[in-house]
Amino acid sequence: MNYTARQLGDLTPTNPNRRQGLLAVFHIDLPLLVGLLLLCGFGLIVLYSASGEDLAQVQRQMVRLTLAFFVMLAVAQVNPSTVRRWSPSLYGVGLLMLVAVLVFGEVGKGAQRWLDLGIVRFQPSELVKLAVPLMIAWYLAEKRLPPSWQRLAVAAFMTVVPVLLIAKQPDLGTALLVACAGIFVLFLAGISWRLIGALLVALAAAAPVAWYLMRDYQRQRVLTFLDPENDPLGAGYHIIQSKIAIGSGGLYGKGWLNGTQSQLDFLPERHTDFIFAVLSEEFGLIGVLILLALYLFIIARGLYIATRAQDTFNRLLAGALVLVFFVYLFVNTGMVSGLLPVVGVPLPLVSYGGTSLVTLMAGFGMLMSIHTHRRLLPT
Amino acid sequence: MQLKDTIRENQAFLTRAIVAGMLVIGAVALLVGRMAQLQIVDHEHFRTLSHENRVKVVPLPPTRGLIYDRAGVLLAQNRPAYSLEITPEQVDDVDAVLDQLAAVIEIGDEDLERFWQLKKRKRRFDSVPIRVNLTPDEAAQFAVHHHRFPGVDIKAQLLRHYPHDVKTTHVLGYVGRISQRDLEQIDASNYAGTSHIGKNGVEKTYESALHGSVGHEQIEINAAGRRVRTLEQTPPEPGVDVHLHLDIALQEVAMQAFGDNNGAIVAINPKNGGVLAFVSQPGYDPNLFVEGISKKNYDALQGDDDRPLYNRALRGQYPPGSTVKPFMGLAGLERNAISFDTSVYCPGFFQLPGNTHRYRDWKKTGHGPMDLDAAIVQSCDVYFYKLAYELGVDRLNDYLGQFGFGARTGIDLTGESTGLLPSREWKRRARRQPWYPGETLIMGIGQGYFLTTPLQLAAATAAVANNGTFYTPRVVDYLRARGSGEITPIPPSSQPIAKAFQQNWDDVRNGMANVVEGARGTAKRIRSDAYRIAGKTGTAQVFTVAQDEEYDEETIEKKLRDHALFVAYAPIEDPQIAIAVVVENGGHGGSTAAPIARTIMDAYLLRDTGDDS
Predict the structure, then answer these.
(1) Can you tell me whether residue B274 is helix, strand or coil?
(2) Which of A155, B21, B43, B604 could form a cystine bridge with A250, CB 3.0-4.6 A?
(3) Catalytic residue flag (residue B322)
(4) pLDDT 10s digit of each residue in chain A, 379 long?
(5) By the CB < 8 Å criterion, does B220 face chain A?
(6) Residue ranges per domain, chain B?
(7) Residues A240, A243, A248, CA angle at the centre, nearest 5°?
(8) Are the C-beta atoms of residues B557 and B449 closer than 8 Å to each other?
(9) Within 13 Å of residue B252, how many CA atoms lie on the same side as its CB?
(10) Which residue in chain A is spatially nearest to B26 when comparing CA positions?
């Protein structure tokens, strides 16, 4: 792997003359756009079935998706250097809002996550999902990489504070994603393998402490994950029914709208967190592979964009955003298939709901912006 | 330097990005492996679980067979019973709806109590009854206001109903809710979905035919258990209709003839043992038991001194009294203890050799010289004391056993009593005492230990009427399948009675004819010009009169008065009906019981509509 900047430059359309037409004008990355559109389209088809053929619900989701795509396009127009400049402020505002949520926030579903801004209700943790990788990338990109121990400690602290604030709401899923975002930036920034090894050991050692700090329902989730049959009608019900849905789908699936587990309400949360089980039941392993192929295509394109980025900040940001997107996918599908404990993470861009949609698409907007605002490098 | 750093950083990043990409691919491979495990390897297992989740097998209870009398009159039917039910899911404010309902239809405290109790146990989309057994008026009244009560509906359920209520109770029995004890005796799977079962009478004996076989329906349900659609159906096989020998018109006549008296009547067709009338007075309304009898009603029935729940015709054990004399006469003739013209002088009492105890005749002054015919006609006790003494208990027991005395007749009703035909062996076993000769004497006039049920008396009389064949009494004539109309007859079961000389039978039957037709016959008042009747009166002691006391009907308490009995058959030339009547505390058989028998025979033999026996 001995690429030079020159060689990299040759491989991509960095020549301004070649970037023409509507796509270039609006800073759109076509492969990413196509991948996202295909994924969202597939998602809507599954959602139509998962919602019990409720067209109104599908329409609402289409409105959200449209809105999110416009957000993506808007973000894509912003020059990465502008984003970089605004990073610390965004992070600061995010932290303040998290504190505000804990003080004034609205309670929903047993957790305090929402901030009522009069016109819209807003989840500050969503903003933080972007603000943390931005902030860490901004901080680490200031100096040479790999970062010094001191800078690493500061970056770790910058990650831990919002994670703890979110965990306190409590919103374990989002806290996990935010933590991942910070960790991925550090990982991509090149912290030593030895440190990574030490951290993993420390993590294993910290597990009992985490257990002690967890709330009852969180502990229950872990216990249920370890032995779902132990409580088949209570906490284990979700995962048992989800596995039945997936397993009964087989290779080819029961057919669109024909999933008995989903259509007869055996599968809980089927249009939100468990929509992957609906897809698995109705489209079988073939459908699962198609979905995963779409995700992998988007992730591959994202990683490619990251490697093609022209400065450290952009590289770290793009890489972290893509990897967080993957964590979304893996945590959700792992949970639905019983590989991981139940953590409230939606299937990105497919699950019904708009909260994470805007954040995710804003992230893709940043990827597009990073890729389409490149200059010719000096040789 | 700056550029070199950039390149190095770039390369370091590339390495990390590739590692990350490999981690992604590894994780996805893990996920795909997991999905393959669930969807390919364990697919069968999960397919089964998914099927079990959504498919439920629901039993379809069969409709119970109907019961008809010999003329095709419906005796037991399935009637829709209306109840008012609330589906909680469809009602916003149950309390408010209950308040409004109370203004339209009467709702009692116990209705409310039952409602709240049931509501707790049922699912939200299951309807819960608030009122049961609506009268047609109430149902109509609610129907007018129905639009005001969404989620409140009238539900119909088929419920057993006995239109002739008290007239058929002791024959048909009744159905009631299946109890834990019933469950232990039936094939529970065949009763899945069935709520009622025959508790006694024909309903119990013919339970399996009446019930039919359960059907099944495979339905698809959702997670809440609500039916989504029907997948497959095996319809139930309805119960078979049961047609009785019983004649409900005759049954009604018999009950009316009884008046206020307690007792029993059994009328049998001597040609096949078919039960034409079967009355136990008093009766009760079997419909009370169908939906579960209230404690108040049950206590009233149970505490009634007249014991309406007691099936006297089937279980009542009465001394046969003088009605046994024709059988005794036959025993004497056939077993060569006497001949038809043997004469015995009746001084009004009988004494055993070497014993001063006087066995009294009912006629204090005595009947004078008696032959068998006169002894039957005038019911002379002394003649039969002597006859019994000479036959001895062993031969008596042996001969009378052929007429079904002392054993269950085997009628197709449950709970029959055996009666008691005494023997030495029985006395040794039951009383731990030897048999005394005096006991043979009083057995000869149908007293002492000798006990018979009205059913036994009727069956034995039928055997005399048909000249020597004992038919097992049958209530049910045939079964008729609902759809195909296929008929399964219940064949008569018979046992011939050993016969030495036909003349002996003719003589005794003649004696019975003279009881009604003779100038001194004890039942001469029931003589009919339309047809000839043969019979025998009887009076059974309830209360033992001491040696030096007189029995005075006027002063004695009604409960302690003698039972009046009468057995008869008619017409003599071609007997079509044999009958036994027991009127408890009725006094003399000739004056109380015989007229009842005559009324029934008139109704049966002289009725305008054709005879179909």
Answers:
(1) strand
(2) B43
(3) yes
(4) 444 444 444 444 444 445 557 788 889 999 999 999 999 999 999 999 999 899 999 999 999 999 999 999 999 999 999 999 999 999 999 999 999 888 877 665 556 667 766 555 678 888 999 999 999 999 998 887 788 889 989 999 999 999 999 988 878 888 989 999 999 999 998 888 888 888 888 888 888 887 887 777 777 777 776 666 666 666 678 888 999 999 999 999 999 999 988 888 888 888 889 999 999 999 999 999 999 999 999 999 999 999 999 888 999 999 999 999 999 999 999 999 988 887 778 999 999 987 789 999 999 999 999 999 887 555 4
(5) yes
(6) 1-33, 59-244, 248-605
(7) 125
(8) no
(9) 9
(10) A330
**At the topology level of CATH, where does B248-605 sit?**
Beta-lactamase (3.40.710)
In this complex, do A265 and B36 lie within 8 Å of one another by their Cβ atoms? Answer: no
Measured between beta carbons, which residues in chain A are less than 8 angstroms from residue B31? 292, 330, 333-334, 337, 339
Phi, psi of A223 (to 5 degrees): -60, -40
Our CA-based measurement puts residue A144 at a distance from the nearest CA of chain B, in whole angstroms, of: 8
SS (H, E, C) A101-170: HHHHCEEECCEEEEEECCCCEECHHHHHHHHHHHHHHHHHHCCCCCCCHHHHHHHHHHHHHHHHHHHCCC
**Cα–Cα distance between B269 and B307 in angstroms, integer?**
28
Q: Which residues of A touch B28 (CB under 8 A)?
A: 292, 296, 330
Helix axes A275-308, A30-50, angle to 10 degrees: 170
> If you write DSSP's letter for every residue of A246-279 in order, what string do you get?
HHHHTTT-S-TT--HHHHTT-STTTTTTTHHHHH
Radius of gyration of chain A (CA): 21
Distance, in Å, from the CA atom of A363 to the CA atom of B5, rounded to the nearest integer, reads: 28
Tokens 């079961």 sit at which residue? B493
What distance in Å separates the CA atoms of residue B166 and residue B285, rounded to the nearest whole number?
5
Can you name the residues that pair with B568 across neighbouring β-strands? B535, B579
Residue A65's identity, in one-letter code, is L
B243: which strand partners?
A: B68, B478
Q: Which long-range CB contacts under 8 A does A195-198 form with residues at least 24 apart?
A: A195/A152
Closest by CA to B416, choosing from B357, B462, B459, B466, is B459
CB distance from A142 to chain B under 8 Å?
A: no
Q: Are B35 and A246 in contact (CB < 8 Å)? A: yes
CATH for the stretch B59-244: 3.90.1310.10
